[in-house]
Design brief:
With 393 residues, the chain is of the alpha+beta class. It has 16 helices and 13 strands. The radius of gyration is 22 Å and the shape is globular.
């Protein structure tokens, strides 16, 4: 029996419709839900990603959702990456990635303690430091890693990071412990010091942070829920796309998909999977364009990207596979852009999307400059893409 078919054009229509690009949404919560998870290792990129999908781009709305209403929460989860996710999904993301993120983070920290010869038994020493931090975070409210280290000599212990390399530095155990405890779900990134692009995060206890947090039943059900939301937003797709996006093993990915009602359908380049009740065509929409920031969740949404990226990977991604800023037209990547040091936005098209789209892209660049209002965003957690580097020079 022949499989149902879906072509790449329909997949691109879905991107526009489901990622709040063809029809922008009213709130940060709506944007986060549309994407499942907004890439947030670089907080400036996260804000620009949300702004690209809002009817009225507003930094204040992003901060309201993150820090006042707390309906969107930053978590260290899929692929050991910080994402801003709807609060009702936050604990499921942590439970679904505990084995692939929190476990390796603990082993890494134990190795650093062993190399630093902090104690004869680094496992026991880390347990003691962990208990000390847990006792303190409830008392401190919101705090920096430095304030946590100052509160207990054990947490102020210095360890060397990347010894023998040009990146070698020393950090307090408190700094490294916050990374581990965020992956475990004990702490959450609170409002940073500085402007909206600042990476100087403060911390707070996850417990009591938001009334919207929903505890998952177990790791398996959490993984199934993450897979269900991803497949609705990013499917139909290949199982290895989900495996890459989550950072799961093939076994975990297969189990998560087996817990869902899915069907196999035929795409232009091979079999894909979709939710069984999600096979209808996407309604047509008006032509759309978007300037998406570096590391945007749409640009980084799949392992296999030719159906929307075309031949432009080498021009728009850094050597580690991190996406730079991209220009989209009707579900295709057609160019790149950059923010120059004078606050202006420069665009380079890598293919011709047509005169109407070119005009719309120029308008989008102007609106982005207005939104930035002189703020200059530079590459963080990634390298410059070739197009971005050339535009900035």
């Amino acid at each position: 029996m022949a499989l149902p078919r879906i072509d790449d054009a329909e997949r691109r229509r879905r991107v526009g419709a489901r990622h709040a690009l063809a029809a922008p949404v009213a709130s940060t919560e709506d944007a986060a839900r549309a994407l499942v998870a907004v890439h947030s290792t670089d907080p400036a990129s996260m804000t620009l990603a949300v702004a690209a999908r809002l009817q009225r781009p507003d930094v204040g709305d992003v901060e309201r959702a993150l820090y006042t209403d707390r309906t969107v929460v930053r978590v260290l989860a899929m692929r050991r990456t910080v994402f801003a996710v709807p609060a009702d999904l936050a604990l499921s993301c942590l439970a679904a990635t505990a084995q692939s993120v929190a476990g390796p983070e603990r082993r890494k920290l134990v190795g650093l303690l062993r190399d630093a010869r902090v104690a004869e038994d680094p496992e026991a020493w880390l347990d003691a430091a962990h208990r000390a931090a847990l006792a303190l975070i409830e008392q401190l409210g919101t705090f920096s890693a430095g304030e946590l280290a100052a509160a207990d000599p054990l947490l102020a212990t210095q360890i060397e990071i990347s010894p023998g390399t040009k990146y070698a530095t020393r950090q307090s155990v408190a700094s490294r412990l916050m990374t581990l405890m965020s992956a475990e779900g004990h702490v959450v990134r609170a409002r940073p010091d500085g402007a909206w692009g600042s990476t100087r995060f403060r911390w707070a206890a996850m417990a009591g942070w938001s009334d919207h947090l929903v505890e998952p039943q177990d790791a398996q059900s959490a993984a199934a829920e993450v897979a269900r939301r991803w497949l609705f937003a990013y499917g139909p797709a290949r199982p290895e796309d989900l495996q890459w996006w989550t950072g799961w093993t093939k076994r975990t990915t297969t189990a998560a998909l087996a817990a869902l009602p899915t069907v196999e359908i035929q795409g232009d380049e091979g079999p894909l999977i979709a939710l069984a009740d999600d096979l209808g065509p996407t309604p047509g929409s008006a032509p759309w364009v978007a300037l998406l920031p570096a590391l945007d969740s749409t640009t980084m949404g799949w392992k296999h990207r030719d159906w929307y990226l075309g031949p432009h990977r080498a021009s728009l991604y850094d050597v580690n596979g991190n996406a730079g800023p991209t220009v989209w037209a009707d579900g295709r990547v057609v160019g790149g852009w950059a923010i120059r040091d004078d606050g202006t936005v420069a665009v380079r098209l890598l293919q011709d999307p047509g005169s109407a789209a070119r005009d719309a892209i120029d308008d989008a660049a102007h609106r982005l400059e207005t939104f930035l209002d002189g703020t200059v965003v530079k590459a963080r957690a990634r390298g410059w893409s070739p197009v971005e580097r050339e535009l900035r020079s």
